[in-house]
Structure formats: C-alpha cells, structure tokens
Protein 1
Amino acid sequence: MLWPSAYDGGFPLWAYAYLHHYYVISSVRSGQSRVVDPCGAVLLETEKDKQVIFRDINLDFVVSHLDFNHSIPDKIKAKYGDRVDVRRSNLGCSHFVVEPMDPAITCRQLQAEFGFESTFQYHDRHREAYSHVRDGQRSPKQQPLHGIRPQHGKF
C-alpha cells in the first residue's frame, strides 16, 4: 500500500500492515517516511540527514504464525541463507515473514518444502473449528499443512 500524504500515518499504518499482511510504503511531508513490513515492523525510515530511502520488496512473501512452526525460520535460514529473508516480528506477536530474495525461489516452493502455512490459512482453520463449537458440535481434529509437529518446540 502506498501512503503519499502530508500526515505520516504513524501507528495506524503499522496496524494496517499487521492486520492485512501487506507492505506500507509512505512518502510524507511531515514526520518520517517509512517502509513498514507485513508484520507492522518499520524496516526503514527517513531521517534529517537521510531523506530518501529504498528497499527491494518481493511481493511473493508469506506471513506465518509460529504455532507449530517454531523451527521453520531457522531451517529456512540454514538451507537458503541470504537467498531468503526470514524475519520474526519484533512487536511481540507470534508471526514471521518469509520473503525470497532470489527470483529462483518462490514461497509456494518453500511452503511445500518446509510445510508451513500462511496466517490466513491458520486463521481459516481455526474459524472452521470454532464454527463447529458454536453449533454445539465437536470440532474435527485440525490438520495443519505440515502434518504433526510440536506446537511450541523447535523440532
């Protein structure tokens, strides 16, 4: 999302990026222009002596939840190094961003190889389970993309 404005947007832009999992690029007259990642973290911002900022952004990225995926960021980094940018949110939430930097790598390939789902898939799975509970039924056993992996461990 581009945010050209006289108003710098501040926290609302971070919240929009986080809630909808998209990049926000601001260009403003007041305050600081920023690059905000899909977890709401400010990656770059202008300063008094640095009035122009830029960053390559691959729109083929995935935001994933750490539930059942604690080992995934380390495994991707161990295999692909700097060819894939893997960032954990520094805002106290349990999300991480996977963004290939090498055009030969896609998020679909990484998801198939490492068995992790997007937060959208994760939340859809939970919404479906909650709908069963609301209807007075027992929810079916949830089956994440990866199959069986410990929820909080790095295995």
Protein 2
Amino acid sequence: MLFFLSHGYRVIAHDRRGHGRSSQVADGHDLDHYADDLAAVTAHLDLKSAIHVGHSTGGGEVVRYLGRHGESRVVKAAIVSAVPPLMVKTAANPGGLPKSVFDDLQAQLAANRSEFYRALPEGPFYGFNRPGAKKSEAIIANWWRQGMMGGAKAHYDGIVAFSQTDFTEDLKKIGIPVLVMHSEDDQIVPYADSGPLSAKLLKNGTLKTYQGFPHGMPTTQAETINVDLLAFLKA
C-alpha cells in the first residue's frame, strides 16, 4: 500500500467479513457475499474509475464482484496468484485438485488453527520449503497474526468458498483490461489450472508468468510485483 501511495494513488484495503478487524459474523462466508460486501464498500465511498487488485481468494472476490455487479465503477483489475477459474477437480475441470485436499485443510484448521496458521507460511505459502529458501520469521509471524485475528468459522467456511466456487462465467463477462499474475511455482494455487485458463476466458486479459516465485509473491517479491503492477496501472 505504501508503494502505491508514494506514486500518488489513493489506496483502500478492506478486511473481508470474518477476517482482520471486520465483524466475525456466523454466516455469509461465500463469494457472493464477499462480492456484495465489496460492492457496499465501493458504493459507500462512491469510488469511480477504480482499479481492483486481488491476491489469492481476493482475486476471486474481484472477479465475482465484476461478474455480479458490473464495471461501472472500475477501469482495470489485476488478479495475483488467484483462485479462478476453479480450484477443485470436477468432470469439467479435470486439472483441478481433489476435494480431499481441501477437506484435509479444513480438518487441520479445526484440529489446531494456531499450528495450521504457522505451518502454511513456514512452508508452501511463501516457498520457504524450497531448497535454499531463506525463511523470514517476521513474515511468518505476521501471517500467523493476521490469521488468528479472524474468525475460525469464517476461515473454515472460506476454504469451501475459495476452492469450490466456479468463476468461469464471471470471467467471460469481464470486458475491462485484467492483468493475470501467476508463478509457475505456486504451491497453493497450481499454475496450469489457474492463471493461463483465466487469461483465456477474459475478453481483455493479459497473463504475466513468473518463474520460481511463491504464492505469496506480493510479499516476498514485492519489488518485482509492485513495479509490474504500477506499469499496468499506468498503461
């Protein structure tokens, strides 16, 4: 956020329901509600000619928002390491991950959320499990902190939301320029079944592929991701 503020942009980040400092409500932990909440924020602030940037599930939130609420307030969007078009394996999506993968994530979260939120950033989320990777204790601790601030039920339900929501029709509706940023070494949202497929479904999508970057590349490779985003914003 500071990077884009320093380049003259107004930067707004909201905490999704059940996350961060937002209310830990019992229900509505699905992409339709996420998109409607985002629409409420943009309407309340009367945002116009906005550029939406979403990472991971946030990328799905941006796509569902545009598909559900239209583009009248938006001029561009970027989705980074994002979950669309669909993460779970189905007959129509044979390259997806088996549902058992996500069931296991829910089981781990329910068993011990604190341990679960430590293991993910220590390992695959930032690529710290790769040979020669230099772990950052500060990044790991901050990921854990943000996770533990949120609501357990929101996070439990959110696993179903990000893994089983099909964004195919949303992507087809979008006409504004969309930058799709994804790494071939993403261990959370596998590259082959996400970034390239989303870019093809978009009417005006551009795929930017990275080599060796992790899922959490906006943090660990901020100097690259920020510059590439800024170039897209200014184009």
Protein 3
Amino acid sequence: MTAIPAPKGLEVAYVLGTTAGGTGRHVAMLAAGCAARGVAVTVYGPGDTEKRFFRDREVSAAVSDADPPRSRTFVRVEIAARPRPARDTAAVLRLRRLLLGSSPDVVHAHGLRAGAIAALALAGAPGRRSALLVTVHNAPPAAGVTGAVYALLERIVARRADAVASVSADLAERMRRRGARDGGRALVPAPPAPAPSADEVAGVRQELGAVDRPVVLAVGRLAAQKGFGTLLAAAGRWQRHDPVPLLVIAGEGPLADALHLQARSAGLAVRFLGPRSDIPALLAAATVVVVASSWEGQPLIVQEALRAGRPLVATRVGGIPDLTGEDGAVLVPPGDAERLASAVRSVLDDPERREKLAAAALARAAALPDEMAAIEAALAIYVQIAAAVA
C-alpha cells in the first residue's frame, strides 16, 4: 500500500494518560506516521509516558505554553492513571490553555480518562472549534466507587466527543448505548518485528532450561486484567504431564510479588522472566502460547503469536475472537482454570492439532491490518470529523 499524503495544513493533537503498554505504543505510531505524511502533530501527556514511548528528541522535546506547535512535539500534561480530583482539575485547565493556544483541527484522546479530560478542556472554548475523537482502549471497572467514576467518564465522552472509536465490538456497543457517535473500529496493529534466527531460538530454549521440555509461554503486564492467577491455577493441573511443561511468563507489573508467592506455594514449574526485548525469540521457542486475560481489545501478544505461527490458547473475551477467528486459537472462557488447563493439555498432547493451529495462525496473521492501514484509517476519520465541525 502506498502512503497517502494528509490534507495540507491538518493539525492533530493527541492526548493520553499514564500508560505502560499498548496505548502508548499505538499513539507513538500514529503520531510518527501522521507527521511523516505532513500533519502538524502535538502529543499531550505525562512525563512518564514521554520517557517510555516518545524518546525521539524531535517527538519528545517539551515546550512552554507560549511556544508554537512544531511538526512533532510532546508537551507534558500530567494525566494520572487513576482519578485524582485536584490533579485532574489542574490537567483540564492546563490542557484547555494549551489547546486554545494552538487550535488543532482534531484532538484525538486515548482512553476514557484522557477523553473526558480533553472533552472538559474543550467545553465552551471560544473561536474555531477543534473536533474531538476519543478511542476507547479498555473495558472500565464494573463495580464499586471506581466503576461509578468510570461510568461518569463514559457519559462525558459519549455526550461530548464528535466520534468515539473502539478497539473491540463489545466496547463499541457499550459506548453506543451511552449515546456516543460511532467512530468505527480503531486499528491497533502490533509493530513489525524481524524473525529470530535459529541460534537465537536455541539460545532462549537453553536459557530457559527447556531443551527437551514443552514451553507454555505467556506475555503481558502482571496485572489483574491479564489473568495470570488463573493461568498459575491451570498450571497446577498439568504438573503430572510427562514431561512437565515449563510455564514461562514475561512481563512486569504490580502483581509480581503475589504471583511469585502463588507459584512457590503451589510448587509449580514456572519461570518469571520480567520484561524482555526478545519476544519473537520467546514465541518461536514456545510450544504453545497462552493468553488468559479477563478482557482484551486487540492485544499485541495475540497478533504477535499469530504472525509467529504459534499454537495459541486464549480467552474468548473482547476483541480476541475477531483476531483469531474460530480456527486460529483454542478459545476458552475467562477465569476458568480447569478449562484453560484442559485446552493447553489438548494442544500439548496432539502434534497434529499443533500443526493445524500453527497453519491457521499464519493464515489469520496474513489478514491483520498493518501500521500503514491504521494510520490511513485514522487520517480518514480526522478529515471526516474536522469537516463536520468546520
């Protein structure tokens, strides 16, 4: 596909909060891709997000409120990961001042918190109005005070955004019920990665101590959403398999200590690797890849496993079935350790099934959108909503 230049003079402001994963990578990809097509891009977000995802000095050079926007600029606005009334009010006021000073054609906010803060910052703004697009990346908490807060954020976004894009069909339906104007499906592709060499794969298996053992691989942030507790409970049910599979978990997060304790208490054969930069080699070394999440949108690890042609067991939640289809993975209910363990054992015990799953994974991967498709889709909605409010 040939890149299509953006309309001349288009200005886009991205707004995002504190993030440690796919949302930050996604916004960095959109910002770089749109800037390469001639869009004047400014990213507004916390300093921690800047350090993680916007290290290119042309992208991340912070400017004062009085500076004019450049082609690719990061301006710090501290949007916290959790609701903090005083800090959130300060973020709204700072973002309002910045957006009034630059008047972008489109403000594209990512996540409900950033979306609500952007909506409030733009409310009642004098002069030329910026169009507001919000991409919803995650399902909100369902209960308690936090759930009530996020329900309020959903209503603010639904009522004030010119369009709301979602990463999965269930989120799109949820926002439609809130009254949101549908901005279509947001495309969140995994970044391209070179295939590992045979020596790299052999080195990983040797490092893991799994030269003659099956490897069950899971990758993700060690947080409640990812279902690692269920995965460890499932691992306890395959300890009598011969040979005992080695469970390998790559990632870091707030539940690291609790998961280590759970694994030790159960006497499980598991390796916690922490954050890794060699995910393609780990995937190639895996006998089966497992995603046990309680909810996902378009998870990068599922896309990466499909591209690597690895047998995949995953939960039937969010956007996962849209990525895998019914043949690209064994899909199980979330939170069910017994069903998860049974699915993993069925793949480990059946070489022919592993081959079929691997072939189906590669076929599904061939149909996945790439970064260029995501950038073109974003530009199309920018042009549409900017014209609608002009």
